[in-house]
Amino acid sequence: MSCHEILREKGHRLTPQRMLVIEVLHEADKHISAEELYKQLHSRYPYANISTVYRTLELLKELNLVTEADFGEGRVRYHVAEKGHHHHLVCHSCGKVIDLDDFTLYPLKDALLKEYGFDADLRHLAISGKCSKCRKKKRRA
Predict the structure, then answer these.
(1) CB 61, CB 49: distance < 8 Å
(2) pLDDT, tens digit, for every residue of 16-66?
(3) Number of structural domains found in the chain
(4) Together in a domain, 79 and 34
(5) How far apart are CA 72 and CA 92, in angstroms?
(6) Nearest residue to 18 via CA among 7, 33, 30
(7) Residues 40 and 91 reside in one and the same domain
């Protein structure tokens, strides 16, 4: 079911601004911030405002249509959920982002459930640390 169909089914209006926000999200080839999304939206629809973008993103997040990730750069980035969930390793030294497969986190999810009775939602996760290149630089210094 598409985002448009889910919004209609849940009783939400499909305003031109919402439709454009969804379109920009789907066109993005990477995670996109609300500010980046707004710039693209504003170039197509000059009457749009940033608060509309934030409200639409919040609604889409509540409906599990987008996921958000914090790559440690001071802003949240968004990704269309139907494009699949995945995880990231983010180097806080150089900013490199490495995609991490879902199955890598299965043992963590199982351990959290077993040890703490906590069913973790690990659909989209960013883990910060240092990449191998930055770790090697530190050892040489």
Answers:
(1) no
(2) 888 889 999 988 878 889 999 999 988 888 888 899 999 999 999 999 888
(3) 2
(4) yes
(5) 7
(6) 7
(7) no
Query: 138 falls in which pLDDT band (50, 70, 90)?
Result: low
Token pair listed for 50: 């940033």
Strand-strand pairing, 125-129 and 32-33: unpaired
Instruction: Please give the pLDDT value at position 84.
Output: 65
> What does the pLDDT look like over 100-126, one tens digit per residue?
887 888 899 999 999 999 998 777 677
Q: Within this chain, do residues 65 and 115 fall inside the same structural domain, yes or no? A: no
Write out the DSSP string of 24-44: HHHH-SS-EEHHHHHHHHHHH
Distance of alpha carbon 108 from alpha carbon 104, whole angstroms: 8
| Structure token digits, residue 63 | 């409906």
Parent domain of 116: 85-141
Beta strand pairing call for 76-80 and 66-70: antiparallel
Give yes or no: residues 62 and 101 share one domain: no
End-to-end CA distance of the chain: 54
Same-domain check for residues 10 and 55: yes
